[in-house]
Design brief:
Helix content: 40-55%
Number of helices: 10
Strand order of the largest sheet: 1-2-3-4-5-6-9-10
Shape: globular
CATH topology: TIM Barrel
Strand content: 15-25%
Mean pLDDT: 96
CATH architecture: Alpha-Beta Barrel
Radius of gyration: 17 Å
CATH superfamily: Aldolase class I
Number of strands: 10
Number of domains: 1
Distance between the termini: 12 Å
Structural class: alpha/beta
Length: 239
C-alpha cells in the first residue's frame, strides 16, 4: 500500500521565521506552501495580512508566532499580540512559554499565561500550539508538569522548539538539539490524545518526518518543505 503524499504535506507547518526574511521571501514561501498544499505557514505576526492575501484560494492556514522566540513578554502583551494576529486572520498560534517561569517552577504563572492565550484562541475558533523550548527545559520533571498543565488547560498542541534559541555545547559552540526522540516520547506519553504533538527543530528530511510520526507526532515545523516532499515523490508517495 502506497504512502500518502497529501498526509505528509498536511503534517508540515512551513516555517518563515528567519529574522532577515523579506516581503519577497514571504511571498515566495507562501507560493511554495500553496504548491505543496501544506498544513500552514508559520510566520511573524506583522506578516499575517500579507500571508492571508498570498494564500487566498488555498486551504493552507496561517499560523502566527506569539512571544517569539524567548517567551519573555508579559502575559498582557502576549494576549494583545495574539488578538491582533487573530484579527488579521491567523487561525493558528504558536506561543513560546515564559521559559524562566517554567524553570522557576512558578506553575501558577504558567497556568495563567496558557489559559489566557488558549481561552482567547478558542473563543475565536482557532488553535494554540505551546512551545516549551526543550533545549532549555531539560529537567524531565518540569517537562512532565508542563504537559500536565497544557492538558488541563486544553491546548491543541504541545511543541518542542522555536529553532532560534541556542545552548552552549561542551565544545563551546552554540547549537540546539531540537525535537529529540526522548523529548517527543515524554510529550506524547504525558498528554492525552486530545493534545497533539508538534516536532520542531532538526526535522529536516523525509526520514526525520517518518521517524517522529512513529512517535505520535502529527505536525512538524520545517524550512526544508520542498526537499521533504520531493523526496516523498521519488519514493513513490502518492496523492
Amino acid at each position: 500500500m502506497s504512502e500518502s503524499l497529501h498526509a505528509i504535506a498536511k503534517m508540515i507547518d512551513h516555517s518563515l521565521l528567519h529574522p532577515t526574511l523579506t516581503d519577497q521571501d514571504l511571498i515566495a514561501g507562501c507560493e511554495l506552501a500553496k504548491k505543496y498544499d501544506v498544513a500552514s505557514v508559520c510566520i511573524k505576526p506583522y506578516a499575517v495580512s500579507l500571508a492571508i492575501e498570498q494564500l487566498k484560494g488555498s486551504d493552507v492556514a496561517v499560523s502566527a508566532v506569539i512571544g517569539f522566540p524567548h517567551g519573555s513578554h508579559k502575559v498582557e502583551i502576549k494576549v494583545q499580540e495574539a488578538e491582533l494576529a487573530l484579527n488579521d486572520g491567523a487561525t493558528e498560534l504558536d506561543m513560546v512559554i515564559n521559559i524562566g517561569k517554567a524553570l522557576s517552577k512558578d506553575w501558577e504563572y504558567i497556568q495563567q499565561e496558557l489559559k489566557a492565550i488558549n481561552d482567547l484562541t478558542i473563543s475565536r475558533g482557532s488553535l494554540l500550539k505551546v512551545i516549551f523550548e526543550t533545549d532549555f527545559i531539560t529537567d524531565e520533571e518540569i517537562l512532565v508538569k508542563l504537559c500536565q498543565i497544557c492538558s488541563e488547560v486544553g491546548v491543541a498542541f504541545v511543541k518542542t522548539s522555536t529553532g532560534y534559541n541556542y545552548v552552549k555545547q561542551s565544545d563551546g559552540q552554540m547549537a540546539y538539539a531540537g525535537a529529540t526522540d526522548k523529548v517527543l516520547n515524554i510529550m506524547r506519553r504525558e498528554c492525552p490524545v486530545s493534545v497533539q504533538v508538534k516536532a520542531a527543530g532538526k526535522v529536516r528530511t523525509l526520514d526525520d518526518v517518518l521517524r517522529v510520526r512513529m512517535l505520535g507526532v502529527t505536525r512538524i515545523g520545517a524550512t526544508t518543505t520542498a526537499e521533504i516532499l520531493e523526496e516523498a515523490k521519488r519514493r513513490g508517495f502518492v496523492d
